[in-house]
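Hello,

Our lab assistant flagged a job as stuck in the queue for most of the afternoon. It eventually completed. Since we weren't sure the result was trustworthy after the delay, we are filing this so someone can double-check. Below is the sequence as submitted and the structure that was eventually returned. Let us know if re-running is recommended.
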Amino acid sequence: MAFLHRCLSATLLSAQATGKPFEIIVVDDASTDGSADSIEGKWPSTRLLRNAGNAGFGASVNRGVEAALAPIVILFNNDLAPREQMVRELLTPIFDDASVFAVSGKTIDWYTGEPNHVNMLAKFVDGRMCLAYEDSREISETLFFQGGSCAIRRDVFLELGGFAPIFHPGYWEDYDLSYLAWKTGWKVLYNPRAVGLHVGQGSMKRAYGEQRIAEIKRRNALLFQWLNFTDPPFVRGSCRHLPAELSVSLRKGDQTAWCGTWEAIKKLRQVLALREQRKKWWKRSDSEIFAQFENRGRLC
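-- returned structure --
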Protein backbone atom coordinates (compact mmCIF):
# COMPACT_ATOMS: atom_id res chain seq x y z
CA MET A 1 0.00 0.00 0.00
CA ALA A 2 2.86 2.36 0.79
CA PHE A 3 4.24 2.03 -2.75
CA LEU A 4 0.80 2.63 -4.24
CA HIS A 5 0.43 5.99 -2.51
CA ARG A 6 3.95 7.00 -3.54
CA CYS A 7 3.04 6.06 -7.11
CA LEU A 8 -0.16 8.09 -7.04
CA SER A 9 1.51 11.15 -5.52
CA ALA A 10 4.36 11.08 -8.03
CA THR A 11 2.01 10.36 -10.96
CA LEU A 12 -0.22 13.29 -10.06
CA LEU A 13 2.76 15.68 -9.92
CA SER A 14 4.16 14.35 -13.19
CA ALA A 15 0.80 14.63 -14.96
CA GLN A 16 0.26 18.16 -13.67
CA ALA A 17 3.70 19.16 -14.96
CA THR A 18 2.54 18.56 -18.54
CA GLY A 19 -0.06 21.32 -18.36
CA LYS A 20 -2.50 19.02 -20.19
CA PRO A 21 -5.85 17.67 -18.99
CA PHE A 22 -5.69 14.15 -17.59
CA GLU A 23 -7.45 11.51 -15.55
CA ILE A 24 -5.93 8.87 -13.27
CA ILE A 25 -7.43 5.38 -13.29
CA VAL A 26 -6.49 2.69 -10.77
CA VAL A 27 -7.48 -0.92 -11.41
CA ASP A 28 -7.61 -2.81 -8.12
CA ASP A 29 -6.95 -6.49 -8.84
CA ALA A 30 -8.96 -7.85 -5.88
CA SER A 31 -6.41 -6.63 -3.32
CA THR A 32 -6.86 -7.69 0.31
CA ASP A 33 -4.74 -5.06 2.09
CA GLY A 34 -7.24 -2.23 2.08
CA SER A 35 -5.62 -0.46 -0.88
CA ALA A 36 -8.87 0.15 -2.74
CA ASP A 37 -10.60 1.64 0.30
CA SER A 38 -7.62 3.87 1.00
CA ILE A 39 -7.72 5.21 -2.56
CA GLU A 40 -11.39 6.10 -2.24
CA GLY A 41 -10.63 7.92 1.00
CA LYS A 42 -7.41 9.75 0.07
CA TRP A 43 -7.73 10.10 -3.71
CA PRO A 44 -11.38 10.87 -4.44
CA SER A 45 -10.60 12.29 -7.90
CA THR A 46 -9.10 8.97 -9.00
CA ARG A 47 -11.31 6.58 -10.98
CA LEU A 48 -11.17 3.29 -9.14
CA LEU A 49 -12.07 0.06 -10.95
CA ARG A 50 -12.37 -3.00 -8.72
CA ASN A 51 -11.90 -6.48 -10.16
CA ALA A 52 -14.29 -9.01 -8.61
CA GLY A 53 -11.48 -11.57 -8.51
CA ASN A 54 -7.76 -11.59 -9.19
CA ALA A 55 -7.54 -11.21 -12.97
CA GLY A 56 -3.78 -10.73 -13.36
CA PHE A 57 -1.66 -7.98 -14.86
CA GLY A 58 -2.72 -8.19 -18.50
CA ALA A 59 -6.47 -8.34 -17.89
CA SER A 60 -6.28 -5.48 -15.38
CA VAL A 61 -4.38 -3.29 -17.84
CA ASN A 62 -6.86 -4.14 -20.59
CA ARG A 63 -9.74 -3.09 -18.37
CA GLY A 64 -8.08 0.21 -17.49
CA VAL A 65 -7.29 1.03 -21.12
CA GLU A 66 -10.84 0.22 -22.21
CA ALA A 67 -12.20 2.56 -19.53
CA ALA A 68 -9.86 5.43 -20.43
CA LEU A 69 -11.22 8.45 -22.30
CA ALA A 70 -7.99 9.87 -23.72
CA PRO A 71 -6.41 8.77 -27.04
CA ILE A 72 -3.02 8.28 -25.32
CA VAL A 73 -2.84 6.14 -22.18
CA ILE A 74 0.15 5.96 -19.83
CA LEU A 75 0.64 2.68 -17.97
CA PHE A 76 2.38 2.68 -14.59
CA ASN A 77 2.78 -0.25 -12.23
CA ASN A 78 1.79 0.47 -8.64
CA ASP A 79 5.42 0.07 -7.53
CA LEU A 80 6.73 2.78 -9.85
CA ALA A 81 7.25 6.40 -8.85
CA PRO A 82 7.66 8.59 -11.96
CA ARG A 83 9.95 11.59 -11.80
CA GLU A 84 8.33 14.93 -12.51
CA GLN A 85 9.12 15.03 -16.24
CA MET A 86 8.36 11.36 -16.95
CA VAL A 87 4.81 11.80 -18.24
CA ARG A 88 5.85 14.69 -20.49
CA GLU A 89 8.78 12.69 -21.87
CA LEU A 90 6.56 9.70 -22.62
CA LEU A 91 4.00 11.85 -24.41
CA THR A 92 6.28 14.02 -26.54
CA PRO A 93 7.59 11.32 -28.98
CA ILE A 94 4.17 9.74 -29.49
CA PHE A 95 2.57 13.11 -30.22
CA ASP A 96 5.40 14.08 -32.58
CA ASP A 97 5.27 10.94 -34.77
CA ALA A 98 1.95 9.49 -35.93
CA SER A 99 3.63 6.16 -36.80
CA VAL A 100 4.60 5.47 -33.17
CA PHE A 101 2.42 3.04 -31.24
CA ALA A 102 4.20 3.12 -27.87
CA VAL A 103 6.98 4.89 -25.98
CA SER A 104 8.81 3.06 -23.21
CA GLY A 105 10.53 4.72 -20.26
CA LYS A 106 13.66 4.03 -18.25
CA THR A 107 13.25 2.59 -14.77
CA ILE A 108 15.76 2.85 -11.94
CA ASP A 109 15.94 0.37 -9.08
CA TRP A 110 14.37 1.91 -5.98
CA TYR A 111 17.06 0.57 -3.65
CA THR A 112 20.29 0.50 -5.66
CA GLY A 113 19.83 3.44 -8.04
CA GLU A 114 20.90 1.21 -10.94
CA PRO A 115 18.87 0.96 -14.17
CA ASN A 116 16.65 -2.13 -14.17
CA HIS A 117 14.86 -1.61 -17.48
CA VAL A 118 16.37 0.27 -20.40
CA ASN A 119 16.11 -0.17 -24.18
CA MET A 120 15.17 -3.83 -24.56
CA LEU A 121 16.15 -5.66 -27.76
CA ALA A 122 16.73 -9.22 -28.93
CA LYS A 123 19.21 -11.12 -31.07
CA PHE A 124 19.33 -14.53 -32.70
CA VAL A 125 22.44 -16.41 -31.58
CA ASP A 126 22.99 -19.83 -33.16
CA GLY A 127 19.31 -19.98 -33.99
CA ARG A 128 18.20 -19.10 -30.47
CA MET A 129 16.46 -15.86 -29.53
CA CYS A 130 18.25 -14.06 -26.70
CA LEU A 131 17.18 -10.84 -25.01
CA ALA A 132 19.57 -7.90 -25.23
CA TYR A 133 19.68 -4.38 -23.87
CA GLU A 134 21.10 -0.99 -24.72
CA ASP A 135 21.37 1.96 -22.33
CA SER A 136 20.52 4.43 -25.09
CA ARG A 137 21.30 8.09 -24.43
CA GLU A 138 18.76 9.50 -26.88
CA ILE A 139 15.25 8.63 -28.03
CA SER A 140 15.59 5.57 -30.24
CA GLU A 141 13.66 2.64 -31.61
CA THR A 142 13.22 -0.30 -29.27
CA LEU A 143 11.97 -3.80 -29.91
CA PHE A 144 9.95 -4.00 -26.68
CA PHE A 145 8.15 -1.50 -24.50
CA GLN A 146 7.81 -2.02 -20.74
CA GLY A 147 4.18 -2.58 -19.82
CA GLY A 148 4.44 -0.91 -16.42
CA SER A 149 6.22 2.21 -17.66
CA CYS A 150 5.02 3.40 -21.06
CA ALA A 151 2.62 5.44 -23.18
CA ILE A 152 0.42 3.74 -25.78
CA ARG A 153 -2.16 4.69 -28.40
CA ARG A 154 -5.44 3.49 -26.92
CA ASP A 155 -7.16 2.72 -30.23
CA VAL A 156 -4.24 0.65 -31.56
CA PHE A 157 -3.85 -1.18 -28.24
CA LEU A 158 -7.50 -2.23 -28.33
CA GLU A 159 -7.51 -2.99 -32.06
CA LEU A 160 -4.58 -5.40 -31.63
CA GLY A 161 -6.33 -7.13 -28.75
CA GLY A 162 -4.46 -5.58 -25.84
CA PHE A 163 -2.39 -7.86 -23.62
CA ALA A 164 -3.11 -11.47 -24.59
CA PRO A 165 -4.70 -13.58 -21.81
CA ILE A 166 -2.51 -16.53 -22.81
CA PHE A 167 0.36 -14.95 -20.83
CA HIS A 168 -1.59 -14.87 -17.53
CA PRO A 169 -0.60 -14.13 -14.78
CA GLY A 170 2.15 -11.99 -16.30
CA TYR A 171 5.49 -11.55 -18.13
CA TRP A 172 6.04 -11.24 -21.89
CA GLU A 173 2.57 -9.88 -22.71
CA ASP A 174 4.05 -6.41 -23.25
CA TYR A 175 6.86 -7.83 -25.39
CA ASP A 176 4.29 -9.80 -27.37
CA LEU A 177 2.19 -6.71 -28.11
CA SER A 178 5.32 -4.70 -28.96
CA TYR A 179 6.41 -7.27 -31.51
CA LEU A 180 2.91 -7.57 -32.95
CA ALA A 181 2.90 -3.79 -33.40
CA TRP A 182 6.21 -3.97 -35.29
CA LYS A 183 4.82 -6.75 -37.51
CA THR A 184 1.78 -4.63 -38.33
CA GLY A 185 3.89 -1.63 -39.35
CA TRP A 186 3.91 0.48 -36.17
CA LYS A 187 7.02 1.74 -34.38
CA VAL A 188 7.98 1.49 -30.72
CA LEU A 189 10.36 4.00 -29.13
CA TYR A 190 12.43 4.22 -25.96
CA ASN A 191 13.00 7.57 -24.23
CA PRO A 192 15.79 7.53 -21.61
CA ARG A 193 14.60 10.89 -20.29
CA ALA A 194 11.31 9.34 -19.16
CA VAL A 195 12.58 8.08 -15.81
CA GLY A 196 10.82 6.38 -12.91
CA LEU A 197 11.92 4.64 -9.72
CA HIS A 198 10.85 0.99 -9.64
CA VAL A 199 10.75 -1.64 -6.89
CA GLY A 200 10.16 -4.51 -9.32
CA GLN A 201 8.38 -7.88 -9.05
CA GLY A 202 7.37 -7.34 -5.44
CA SER A 203 3.73 -8.41 -5.83
CA MET A 204 4.50 -11.31 -8.16
CA LYS A 205 7.21 -12.70 -5.90
CA ARG A 206 4.90 -12.66 -2.90
CA ALA A 207 2.07 -14.27 -4.85
CA TYR A 208 3.98 -17.01 -6.70
CA GLY A 209 7.51 -17.39 -5.38
CA GLU A 210 10.73 -17.28 -7.39
CA GLN A 211 10.57 -20.86 -8.67
CA ARG A 212 7.07 -20.48 -10.06
CA ILE A 213 7.95 -17.14 -11.62
CA ALA A 214 10.90 -18.78 -13.40
CA GLU A 215 8.56 -21.45 -14.82
CA ILE A 216 6.05 -18.82 -15.98
CA LYS A 217 8.80 -16.80 -17.68
CA ARG A 218 10.05 -19.93 -19.45
CA ARG A 219 6.55 -20.81 -20.63
CA ASN A 220 5.76 -17.30 -21.81
CA ALA A 221 9.07 -16.86 -23.63
CA LEU A 222 8.19 -19.92 -25.71
CA LEU A 223 4.62 -18.73 -26.23
CA PHE A 224 5.96 -15.40 -27.48
CA GLN A 225 8.04 -17.11 -30.16
CA TRP A 226 5.36 -19.59 -31.20
CA LEU A 227 2.78 -16.81 -31.47
CA ASN A 228 4.84 -14.32 -33.43
CA PHE A 229 7.54 -15.90 -35.59
CA THR A 230 6.58 -16.57 -39.19
CA ASP A 231 9.90 -16.71 -41.10
CA PRO A 232 10.92 -20.41 -41.44
CA PRO A 233 14.43 -19.91 -39.92
CA PHE A 234 12.91 -18.18 -36.91
CA VAL A 235 10.25 -20.88 -36.47
CA ARG A 236 12.84 -23.66 -36.68
CA GLY A 237 15.18 -21.82 -34.33
CA SER A 238 12.50 -21.43 -31.68
CA CYS A 239 12.13 -25.22 -31.50
CA ARG A 240 15.53 -26.63 -32.47
CA HIS A 241 17.24 -26.13 -29.13
CA LEU A 242 14.42 -27.46 -26.96
CA PRO A 243 15.63 -31.11 -26.72
CA ALA A 244 19.15 -30.10 -25.70
CA GLU A 245 17.91 -27.52 -23.18
CA LEU A 246 15.54 -30.03 -21.60
CA SER A 247 18.29 -32.64 -21.43
CA VAL A 248 20.64 -30.24 -19.63
CA SER A 249 17.84 -29.26 -17.27
CA LEU A 250 17.17 -32.91 -16.46
CA ARG A 251 20.84 -33.62 -15.73
CA LYS A 252 21.00 -30.63 -13.39
CA GLY A 253 17.83 -31.63 -11.61
CA ASP A 254 16.24 -28.30 -12.51
CA GLN A 255 12.56 -28.69 -13.33
CA THR A 256 12.07 -25.08 -14.50
CA ALA A 257 12.60 -25.76 -18.20
CA TRP A 258 10.52 -28.94 -18.12
CA CYS A 259 7.57 -27.38 -16.30
CA GLY A 260 7.62 -24.20 -18.39
CA THR A 261 7.93 -26.07 -21.69
CA TRP A 262 5.19 -28.55 -20.86
CA GLU A 263 2.84 -25.73 -19.89
CA ALA A 264 3.60 -23.97 -23.19
CA ILE A 265 2.89 -27.17 -25.15
CA LYS A 266 -0.49 -27.51 -23.42
CA LYS A 267 -1.42 -24.09 -24.81
CA LEU A 268 -0.59 -24.93 -28.44
CA ARG A 269 -4.25 -24.97 -29.48
CA GLN A 270 -4.68 -21.46 -28.08
CA VAL A 271 -1.48 -20.38 -29.84
CA LEU A 272 -2.73 -21.60 -33.21
CA ALA A 273 -6.10 -19.90 -32.73
CA LEU A 274 -4.49 -16.59 -31.81
CA ARG A 275 -2.04 -16.79 -34.72
CA GLU A 276 -5.00 -17.26 -37.06
CA GLN A 277 -6.64 -14.12 -35.65
CA ARG A 278 -3.45 -12.08 -36.08
CA LYS A 279 -2.60 -13.11 -39.64
CA LYS A 280 -4.65 -10.28 -41.10
CA TRP A 281 -2.37 -7.70 -39.39
CA TRP A 282 1.04 -9.11 -40.33
CA LYS A 283 2.88 -6.89 -42.80
CA ARG A 284 6.57 -7.23 -41.91
CA SER A 285 8.79 -10.29 -41.73
CA ASP A 286 10.79 -11.34 -38.68
CA SER A 287 14.08 -10.93 -40.54
CA GLU A 288 13.13 -7.37 -41.53
CA ILE A 289 12.33 -6.44 -37.94
CA PHE A 290 15.42 -8.02 -36.41
CA ALA A 291 17.63 -6.46 -39.09
CA GLN A 292 16.79 -3.02 -37.67
CA PHE A 293 18.46 -3.96 -34.38
CA GLU A 294 21.18 -6.25 -35.73
CA ASN A 295 24.18 -4.23 -34.56
CA ARG A 296 22.71 -2.95 -31.33
CA GLY A 297 22.63 -4.11 -27.75
CA ARG A 298 24.41 -6.48 -25.41
CA LEU A 299 23.09 -9.90 -24.50
CA CYS A 300 21.32 -10.02 -21.13
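-- support follow-up --
The delay was a queue issue, not a problem with the job. The result is valid. The first helix runs from residue 2 to 16. The chain has a mean pLDDT of 93.
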